[in-house]
Amino acid sequence: MPVINILIFLGGLVLLVKGSDLFVLTSSQIARRFGVSEFVIGLTLVSVGTSVPELASSLTASFQQASGIVIGNILGSNIANIGLIASTAALLTNIKTEEVMLRRDGYIMLFASFLLFLFMLDFKISRLEALIFILFYLAYLLFLLEKVKRHEEEIYFKDFMIYFFKFEYFFDLKSKIKPQAREYGIENRNSRGMKKGTWKSEKITQKKNESESKIGMRTKTELTTELTTELTTELTTKSKTEPEHKDIDVDITEEKPQEASLLIEFFKLIASGVAIIIGAKYFVEQAVFFAMLLEVPETLIGISLVAVGTSVPELMVTISAARSDYAGIALGNVIGSNIANILLILGCSGLVHPISITGLSIYYIAPFMLIMSFLLILFIRTGWRVKQFEGLILLLLYLSFMVLILRLG
């Protein structure tokens, strides 16, 4: 029986991960086809893309009121991102970083971790606290898209806090939505006024032709030249009728594959959405089953099986990036993913159902997440690179903690 449950668990994980990848890719393509702006795509699809497995599994667990799976998944994913993914990239090659990555995104990650720990102290995450998380994440996205791009000088963590508490993100969001609505209205007016425009242009052309016809008398030689030209054009037109019809047929047949490909993309979108739902359902159900079977807290299953399972794709991408000398991108993905896990995923899960926190999470797991986050920031600060021996320290700490926490459970 457990063998079947393990297979179902792994099958759900594969459906969840592969479905998430296909969903993000297909939805981005469809959005571009319909002329959705890069701002909207970036704000919704791309930013959430790397965290879709964690988001789907956490939301499913929240609907099932499995709070231990939710909080274990978030804390475990953040610890695994640093202790497993960032450390692996550092072991493969020294990760070069930039000062702005530390003083903006690194400090925001540390702030989100401390805020989570503060909200956990009353043994629950309420809907109000979840809403605060989501508000911070929305402000963070708009801060990156607006402030960082607009200013040539470097923008740091203190600028983000000023941006948040002055509610500037509301004005930036409003300024983004209004021009898009205005452009949409202009396009509608243009389409409605197309017939009027063509009618006016026809009238103008008719008047122009009448005025040209009233030009004085033409000589016989001019009339003869015009007649010869007309005859020549008629003959050439007749000789070219068949190729022209062929060209028209080609244009018509080119439109049909485009419509077919759009239908295929919609089918892929629906199929990937179904795969995410089914995968997350079976993945979480089997995680809860193993927690009951092994008589361990759900939090331990969340921090081990669920967190590591949803982090496997990011680990593969990190190894590939490190081998291609793009380890800095992997580190940026780790920091951004940790921010999204707390502010977005935990925020959405907490809105679905308030999350109850166990003493294991408050006294052991959350403090260790803070220690790992602080160590990562410290290693980045020393020489603006994460060295190989520092990556080894992070990996050994992670493995030691996992052994300890499983024994405690």
UniProtKB/TrEMBL annotation:
Transmembrane segments: 6-24, 36-56, 68-92, 104-121, 127-145, 266-284, 299-322, 334-355, 361-380, 392-408
InterPro entries in UniProt: K/Na/Ca-exchanger (IPR004481), NaCa_Exmemb (IPR004837), NCX_ion-bd_dom_sf (IPR044880)
Molecular function in Gene Ontology: calcium channel activity; calcium, potassium:sodium antiporter activity
Keywords, alphabetical: Membrane, Transmembrane, Transmembrane helix
Zinc is among the record's keywords: no
Transcription among keywords: no
Domain Sodium/calcium exchanger membrane region: 6-145, 269-406
Name of the molecule in the record: Sodium/calcium exchanger protein
Organism for this UniProt entry: Methanosarcina vacuolata Z-761
Species classification: Archaea, Methanobacteriati, Methanobacteriota, Stenosarchaea group, Methanomicrobia
